[in-house]
Amino acid sequence: MEPVPGTDQVVTSDMIASGVHFLPGDPPDTVARKALRVNLSDLASKGAVPHAYLLSIALGPETDDDWLEAFAAGLADDQNRYGIRLLGGDTIATGAACLVSITAIGLVPAGGMVHRSGAQPGDALYVSGTVGTATIGLALLTDPGSAFHRLDEATKAACISRYRVPDPRVGLAEAVRLHAHAAMDVSDGLVGDADRILAASGCAGTIHFEEIPLPAGLDQADYAAVVEGLITGGDDYEILASVPPESEKAFANAASAAGIPVSRIGRLARGEGPVQVMRAGSAMVLGARAYVHGNS
Amino acid sequence: MEPVPGTDQVVTSDMIASGVHFLPGDPPDTVARKALRVNLSDLASKGAVPHAYLLSIALGPETDDDWLEAFAAGLADDQNRYGIRLLGGDTIATGAACLVSITAIGLVPAGGMVHRSGAQPGDALYVSGTVGTATIGLALLTDPGSAFHRLDEATKAACISRYRVPDPRVGLAEAVRLHAHAAMDVSDGLVGDADRILAASGCAGTIHFEEIPLPAGLDQADYAAVVEGLITGGDDYEILASVPPESEKAFANAASAAGIPVSRIGRLARGEGPVQVMRAGSAMVLGARAYVHGNS
User: Fold this and answer.
1) CA distance A180 to A58
2) A8 touches chain B (CB under 8 A)
3) Residue of B nearest to A111 (CA)
4) Residue B171: how many CB atoms within 10 A of its CB?
5) Which of A21, A168, A229, B259 has the fewest CB atoms within 10 Å around its CB?
6) Looking at this predicted complex, what is its ipTM?
């Protein structure tokens, strides 16, 4: 692979496993897309555009020839969609659960990579898209008693689709790179990931629950008992960015030009974390702050 | 990661799994070393020197805190040994077998990467080190009835050690890059991997069994029934190189200067594969030509 003059590489590696990050019955093309997209999400949060990737797959009992063909078709489609090429990889057979490991290489202009450690007191916290959509999807797929089964069919289908196939915010990479002090992608729950930015940057911070963009079609009154799970659940693959006040307008404009909704949900301050989540004037007392991907 | 002027990157990705490429009871530091070294072996065969890597690990039931500590210590030691730095990675828990995926990035002078497809009729085939040592080690660890249990204790210990911890021929990278038409690392059996070079290059070829460097201490008469398994067994992680006649002396000198033994085992010809393995004047009839890593 020849170097691209004037650029730095951003390299990231994420692994997804059947029963942990996807479900054994998930359509194989969605497994391929998710494996690639969780890496593209990470690249975007660092301000990098997709360049190339390597894929290693441990075949499981469910991965017969038909499965692999559909997997490859999904991968090929996403390669084209995101303009990224496959450099190589490895295939092994273990007899255990299917597992996909992808290493993705992105490019930023030299010196331009965005870290999670650059946030400063006074920065605004922005999040892209919605928070909790994938958490609802996972609940619908795995919990027959979930309250979310009462949602309308279109909303349920959208939530399941988002759990299976994230929408990495590749188009937001430039806005993040030009205007954010720090960023990361939200994969283990908004609150816990905000804690990570605060810890890496040495800041305190507050998030206002009412400003968090929850999924459309969700009447919060109906879901008071479960709403906490939406801001601490996994698989959002949205971007959380810390933007200084003087850049907020430019960041919002760039996001809008890219067609990606962003919401200001809070602000950083001097001090140290964890982040305080305020709801109706009081700090929320949260059980778990972060989502731990586990066997379902 | 900043580009290194005048170099190309060679990127490779190999995954190893418990019960397939290593055994559940193997010392954790050897698992770390093997995961890294199989990638370094591949880089060396392409003429590249180690630069950086990413590691993703799926923790298994055997990977408690002590296991991870020893794993990390082995990895740190090998990082220093080979001058390679960790860029990042991922850790997940699946409850299934432990699995380690590494993507390694090596450097070659611009345009200098060695492919397996460049071999030409008339080239000599060279292999580094010995062939079959790791196969004996695996047999000793998994087959109580193996004939190799009759070997002396020092030889047995060396074979087991080689199965668990390959010796990637990093020092041979420059000799390969400067003098070989084609190369690959031998991971799935010498004969099958030679077939791959022939297929990629569009050549025929012959290997002379008597020239293959089998492990020291092995009285072949005692092991006539199993010797075929040594040249078709896995986990050698030696380098197989196709060297044109005019470069043979320079290649051998460079290998010698690097302290790495190399043996000329055959020669390529016009035609097409698979490679013919001649023994005592007759072509050997081989059952399996390549080793398929499988559950043990």
Assistant:
1) 37
2) yes
3) B2
4) 17
5) B259
6) 0.83
